[in-house]
Amino acid sequence: MACLCRDCAHLIDADAASCTNCGSARLVTHPELLDLSIAHIDCDAFYASVEKRDDPALNDKPVIVGHPGGRGVVTTACYIARQYGPRSAMPMFKALQLCPQAVVIPPDMAKYRQASSQIRSLFLKATPLVEPVSLDEAYLDLSAGARLVDRAPAILLARLARAVEREVGVTVSVGLSYNKFLAKLASDRDKPQGFSVIGRAEATALLAPLPVTTIHGIGAATARRLAEAGITSVRQLQAMPEDALSARFGKFGRALAHLVHGEDRRRVVADRPTKSISVETTFSRDQSAYPALAAALEDLAGRLEQRLKRASLAGETVVLKLKTSDFHSLSRQSRLPHPTQRGDLILEHGLRLLGREADGRAFRLIGIGVDHMAPATAADPPDLFEA
Ligand code: TTP
Ligand code: MG
Questions:
Q1: What is the assigned CATH class of domain 203-259?
Q2: Which fold has domain 276-378?
Q3: Residue owning the nearest CA to atom 5 of ligand 1
Q4: What is the value of pTM for the model shown?
Q5: Predicted pLDDT at 19
Q6: Domain residues of the chain, as ranges?
Q7: If you classify domain 31-201 with CATH, what class do you get?
Q8: Is the pLDDT of residue 387 over 60?
């Protein structure tokens, strides 16, 4: 049985009650601790943690990040606020009913992006195999140095978590396992400031009692269908032979048969390219008139152009997003002849798409984005006939 001190990253005797090197009581003990090398790291209440870092007066207060006012939604709530019920994606008015004393802070994306890239640089010091999933989470494959004692993945991870706390000022939760699915499951099991390990020997039994939505690829809709058939726990899926899963789930059935036993063949892929960039706005009052919607779109197209230029990216498909007053989301796409960064071109396509949807319905949100990304160098080839 191996035991690691999370504060000084020393390996110590497994039966010690506190670290024999530094005295800390923050220990992780697991029989497979030194055999596992795939990690998932996720920052704790990320946006709120960055805000607390920048204003220590907020430290002991419930903090909600999101646009204030009745119509915004919560992007995140700090762990103090969560005790009262507020959660990500909850309407702000509801979050404030649950926790009226919360301090509400509007999001500052530039700041979170900066913290995120700082965190990513620290990850890259531990391994080149870093796969970012969002601003605040990434998978790491630490197997390269795994056989060297001082490069054991668990040790690197303990050092990394401390480095992020010290240098960026936010805490993270670490999940360590032998594949991505279980590493992510692990990081979520012990939050905030967690370090959770799932080994091969325990995977099947650990998954058995969990709800089917635990499985990567089973979303709310599939879970509802399964529930109608009386299937709610992973244990029930574990009992089904692969053929039965394939009959029910088609192509996904085979992967599912492996996943329910904790097997996941996906690799950690370094630096997956950005798949899309978008911007959106929620109206303070629902809008149905075309001119008002078009004006909002023009604003957004300008912002999108700035975002694309900052990221040195271009997109070949324009995506218009609308949400009706009764929360029905729709998205419409238009393919361009070439990738673009130009706000005016994006707007032109966006307006055409909008023209087909603005039929008197009231909308609460409008957004525009691009996908099918390309590097800026491939954007907007000069038009021979335009000169
Ligand atoms: P998460 O990692 O899902 O949440 P979190 O970091 O706030 O909290 P946890 O400790 O549970 O990991 O998302 C990261 C950030 O993404 C979060 O700080 C805010 C943003 N976000 C939204 O804007 N909308 C959402 O619905 C969610 C879930 C997150
Ligand atoms: Mg997080």
A1: mainly alpha
A2: Dna Ligase; domain 1 (3.30.1490)
A3: 45
A4: 0.74
A5: 97
A6: 1-29, 31-201, 203-259, 276-378
A7: alpha beta
A8: no
Please tell me the predicted confidence (pLDDT) of residue 312.
81
Distance 137 CA to ligand 2 centre (A): 7
pLDDT tens per residue across span 46-103: 999 999 999 999 999 999 999 987 689 999 999 999 999 999 999 999 999 999 999 9
Domain pair 31-201 / 276-378, same fold:
no
Active site residues: 137
> With a 6 A CB cut-off, is 221 part of the ligand 1 pocket?
no
**Residue having the nearest C-alpha atom to atom 7 of ligand 1:** 45
Query: Among 41, 43, 88, 280, which residue has the most ligand 1 atoms within 8 Å of its CB, making it the best to mutate?
Result: 88
Q: Is 88 in the pocket of ligand 1 (CB under 6 A)?
A: yes
Q: How far apart are CA 153 and CA 280, in angstroms?
A: 40
Q: How far is CA 184 from the centre of its chain?
A: 11
Residue 87 Cβ < 6 Å to ligand 1: no
Where are any strands of DSSP class E within the chain? 2-5, 11-12, 27-30, 38-43, 63-66, 74-77, 103-105, 130-134, 137-141, 172-177, 195-197, 276-287, 313-324, 329-340, 363-375
